[in-house]
Design brief:
Number of helices: 19
Helix content: 55-70%
Distance between the termini: 42 Å
Strand order of the largest sheet: 1-2
Largest sheet: 2 strands, antiparallel
């Protein structure tokens, strides 16, 4: 396929250099956005009397035919083309003749690729937002099923205080809610059309950039032609959002991996999301969660790669920027794949409530409540803290729990103790006393579930 840019040079590249220069292998996935952008551009050119209405109609009919043929498999995108823009223009010219050569009037590949990339990412990120919303809804549903299930809350991976399992799950709902809103903000900043900026300086033609933006459902146009073609902040910002999503998925995956281990036995994953060992017949491995945890580093790498490509580039466009697409495309696919496997894995997991409760009975996770009990009776908290720490130490030595100590033994340690202490350190009471806003009491957890449900309903109404 002849190079469209022959003239100043012969266009005859070394065979390896030609392959090295080509981006068709990865940017061909933007064929739909490229064609839709070109249809809008041709419509604007005719409206501004830069091309005739007849030329516009021929170009749009030709582009529409190319799109239909690609989507039905009749037309295969050739790897001989330099990029998707050149491929579409070459096929258009083959089909409608010299009229096809008029399409590139008042634009450059520099603003064309910036447009295609924004449109492609806008489309793909709508899918990611929908997947995030489904995950948040699944977390909320699982939380609603477990508002009477107690689990040890951990700090430093040590049992700390009793909490509702629903409360723990809802912490992740909040994380993914922030991810959803972060992505919404990033997409809002990205949603401006760069087309019409041309190579870097704009054009001498009397174009209407706002018309193209309106046709392609952008909020407006970019305000500086140099920035329009040199900007890839939107890729960096989206990759940053992806990295944070993956970080949250990885943290959740790590907990699932721990919870499924025999040391915890809090949950069991459905067979559809586990694998076995090639040599140990007893094994049931949480491989999907482990893969998600591993793929997080891959998305971090995509982000660092993008930052590194951009860090030393003078304005405006440089060929280095061809390296933007593979990383951001990989980030998009990785996040989509991970969300698509994680949500049904979570939805189908089995919860072992009794094992969670038994775990709560170990580790003295009601010790803070015992200290609070003494404080409410007038003992300064630091003295109460020290006394309860001593009691716990003795329990460890004697292999007892706080509940097993008799009232007589308690009174020998401090006469403020009375029979009502046992209600104070009962696990469900410990949970439900924590009724501060956002706390782990059942009342507060139900409020959190209702707020998340309201958020989901509000966002669904926007689609």
């Amino acid at each position: 396929m002849q190079k469209m840019w022959t003239g100043r040079t012969s266009g005859e590249l070394n065979e390896f250099a030609n392959d090295f220069n080509s981006s068709i292998g990865f940017d061909k996935k933007m064929y739909k956005q490229d064609i839709c952008g070109s249809i809008a551009h041709a419509t604007m050119l005719a409206s501004q009397k830069i091309i005739s209405d007849d030329d516009r109609d021929k170009i749009i009919a030709g582009l529409s035919g190319i799109l239909a043929d690609i989507e039905c498999g009749k037309l295969l995108i050739s790897d001989d083309a330099e990029d998707i823009h050149m491929f579409v223009e070459a096929i258009l010219t083959q089909r409608i003749g010299d009229t096809g050569k008029k399409l590139h009037t008042a634009r450059s590949r520099n603003d064309q690729v910036a447009l295609d990339l924004r449109m492609y990412l806008r489309d793909e990120n709508a899918k990611i937002k929908n997947l995030l919303l489904k995950l948040i809804q699944t977390i909320n549903s699982r939380a609603a099923e477990n508002t009477d299930v107690i689990i040890p809350g951990y700090t430093h991976l040590q049992r700390a205080q009793p909490i509702l399992f629903a409360h723990h799950l809802l912490a992740y709902a909040q994380m993914f809610k922030r991810d959803y809103l972060r992505l919404t903000d990033a997409l809002d900043r990205m949603n401006y059309s760069p087309l019409g900026s041309c190579a870097l300086a704009g054009t001498t033609y009397n174009t209407n950039r706002q018309m193209v933006a309106d046709l392609l459902k952008f909020k407006g146009v970019t305000e500086n032609s140099i920035d329009s073609v040199a900007d890839r902040d939107f890729c960096v910002e989206l990759l940053s959002c992806y990295a944070i999503i993956m970080m949250h998925l990885s943290r959740f995956s790590e907990e699932i991996i721990l919870w499924t281990s025999s040391e915890f036995s809090y949950i069991q994953l459905d067979d559809a999301f586990t694998t076995g060992s090639s040599i140990m017949p007893q094994k049931k491995n949480s491989d999907m969660a482990e893969l998600i945890r591993g793929k997080t580093g891959r998305v971090y790498g995509d982000l660092m790669g993008m930052l590194t490509v951009l860090k030393g580039l003078p304005l405006a466009y440089n060929k280095d920027m061809q390296e933007d697409k593979e990383g951001v495309f990989d980030g998009v696919k990785t996040v989509q794949d991970c969300l698509q496997v994680f949500t049904p894995m979570l939805d189908s997991m089995k919860v072992f409530k009794d094992n969670m409760l038994q775990s709560c009975k170990k580790g003295f996770i009601n010790a803070t409540d015992l200290a609070d009990y003494l404080t409410k009776k007038g003992l300064p908290f630091r003295e109460a803290y020290k006394l309860v720490g001593s009691i716990v130490s003795n329990c460890v030595t004697q292999q007892k729990t706080l509940e097993n100590i008799t009232i007589e033994e308690y009174k020998k340690m401090n006469d403020l103790f009375d029979n009502d202490l046992y209600d104070e350190i009962e696990l469900f009471n410990c949970v439900n006393k924590r009724n501060s806003e956002g706390g782990t009491s059942k009342e507060q957890v139900i409020k959190q579930i209702e707020k998340i449900a309201e958020f989901i309903d509000n966002e669904k109404s926007l689609y």
